[in-house]
Every structure is written in C-alpha cells, then in structure tokens.
C-alpha cells in the first residue's frame, strides 16, 4: 500500500548552484533533444557533459569525443523532458529520490536502468517500495526496469499474489501492455482464479 504521509513529504529547497548549472547555456558543452515528436514537442536541453560521464559508463561511452553531442544534439526519444531534468538534478548533486512522487520515481527508474546507475536504481527502488500499491502497480509493471532490484521485485510479487483482485479492479489495469498482462498471469499464486484475470482483460 502507498504510504500517503511519505507521498506528500516536501522536497528539499533546490540549491542555487543547481539553477546555475541548468540555466547557464555558456557552461553547456553537450546537448540532447529530449522527447518523442509523436507524443510531445521535444526540447533541446544543454548539459555539463563531464558530470554525466562521471556518473555513468554508458554515457561516458556515448559522449566521449562525440562531435554530434558538441555541435548538434543527441536524440533521446524514449524520455520526457521533465524526467531528463530530474535526472540532471541528481547528476549535478541534488538528490531528491527520497521525496519523489510515484510517477517521477517510476520514470527516473527507467533512466537509471538505461544508464546502468546502480546506486540511483537502489534509491529509487527503495522509494517505490513505499509508494507502489494495487492501484498503480500496473503502471510500474509497464516499466521494463521494475524488476531491476530484488527488493522491489519482491514487493511487486507480493501485491500481485495477495491483492490480485484489487489490481484487476484498478483503472491502470486497462492500460497494461501485453507484456504486463503476461507478468500477472505468470504469478505462481493469485487470490483469484486465472479466468478472472482474462475476464478483467476483456471488459
């Protein structure tokens, strides 16, 4: 169950250096075009390249001596601009993982998995364990990174096995992907008959 008191915990005030790093374009030496044009208007976002490279070997391999990153931009179609900004804030030293709302933590977990950032994944998994519930678990299951830590995987399995009926009744269930539907069916035990899962899927 989601802990509402944790959900509403206020984030720490952003330090002044963060605004400086995010907004001072003359300090940026690398650019990303973030967003899928089919869904939203992409945004060109400048970054301090070495700070990204210091946190992720994946980004280091992608950006080191990249003429595309310096002179044009690196396309990043699988992220939303606000998620990328949240990621940059973490990279620049402002860690708000303990106070992120469910949606933001879910989206940032995908980024942490994409860039193989183990420490960030662990922090986000710990946060999501306090927030995931039968009402939002289907949204989390649509994220391929949701099984990236054993602790979060255990929490997900517990909800799917012991609160299956509530999961099937949640509005998010109707938006599940085929892969998510299969994950639900693959549970060793559920507190409803398998036929009920199929009935919920064809409502």
From TrEMBL:
GO biological process, one term: neurogenesis
SMART domains (UniProt xref): BTB (SM00225)
GO cellular component: cytosol
SUPFAM superfamilies linked: POZ domain
InterPro entries linked: BTB/POZ_dom (IPR000210), SKP1/BTB/POZ_sf (IPR011333)
Residues in BTB domain copies: 28-100
Pfam families from the UniProt entry: BTB (PF00651)
Cited PANTHER family: AXUNDEAD, ISOFORM F, BTB/POZ DOMAIN-CONTAINING
Name of the molecule in the record: BTB domain-containing protein
């Amino acid at each position: 169950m989601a802990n509402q008191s944790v959900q509403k915990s206020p984030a720490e005030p952003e330090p002044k250096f963060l605004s400086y790093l995010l907004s001072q374009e003359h300090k940026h030496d690398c650019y990303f075009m973030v967003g899928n044009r089919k869904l939203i208007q992409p945004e060109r976002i400048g970054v301090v390249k070495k700070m990204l490279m210091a946190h992720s070997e994946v980004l280091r391999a992608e950006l080191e001596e990249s003429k595309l990153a310096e002179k044009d931009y690196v396309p990043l179609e699988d992220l939303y601009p606000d998620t990328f900004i949240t990621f940059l804030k973490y990279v620049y030293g402002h860690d708000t993982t303990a106070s992120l709302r469910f949606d933001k933590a879910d989206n940032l977990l995908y980024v942490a998995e994409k860039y193989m950032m183990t420490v960030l994944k662990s922090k986000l998994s710990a946060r999501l364990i306090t927030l995931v519930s039968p009402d939002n678990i289907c949204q989390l299951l649509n994220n391929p990174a949701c099984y990236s830590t054993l602790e979060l995987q255990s929490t997900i399995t517990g909800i799917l096995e012991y609160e299956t009926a509530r999961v099937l009744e949640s509005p998010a269930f109707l938006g599940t992907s085929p892969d998510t539907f299969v994950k639900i069916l693959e549970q060793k035990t559920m507190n409803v008959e398998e036929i009920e899962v199929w009935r919920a899927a064809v409502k």
